[in-house]
Model the fold of this input.
Amino acid sequence: MARPKTPLISRRRALEAALEIVDAEGLDALSIRRLGDALNVNGASLYHHFKNKDDILQGVTQLALAGVTSPHTESDNWRVWLPLNAYRTRQALVAHPELIPVMLRRASLGIGAHEVEASYERLEQEGVALDVIAPLMELLELLATVSALQETGEPDRESGAVDGDSATERARQARILSSQDVFEAILGAATSAVETAAEVKRLRQNAAGAKAVRGTRQTPPAAGNRKRKAKA
Done:
């Protein structure tokens, strides 16, 4: 059947339905045909909005991460909004764990590229050292993704996969910090750790550069002087 001249359903509604499929049935279940069936439309009509499955996944992930944005007011400080975005990223992935593998390909799929660029620009405007911005952004995204994976991947005690008498299970039962508590603790220290590591590396590079300069300034003794010293 030919593609309809006008879309039969909005892109937003299609993405919402696609997210429902991914949450309930997993990534492998999602396809143009499956999405068309869920929306009660011919799959061909969805090509008005999407080129292929990766295009749908990009849109679905951006929908799930809609709360992760660059600040909209000048008063927001990066030390507040950047960790908050990492927290929101983690929340979104815990709510939609099937999207974690997609999130690991976020950069190559171009997911959230506009918001990421806006955040990079805002960090630079707020005076964050340019050589620290990329490591900061990458580290906080990695922490959010790994923490979400750790929480959603915990073994199911009711399945029998966990031995209730093991030391591992006793420690898990006795834990005082949840996965989210651990994430928030690390999040608070991550920014300072990156800044400190960057400063240490700058000092080392400067020291190495100064040493190299001193080495080039040292003039070797003339050949005649070396010969006279050798005879003596």
Summary: Residues 69 and 114 are 9 Å apart (CA to CA).
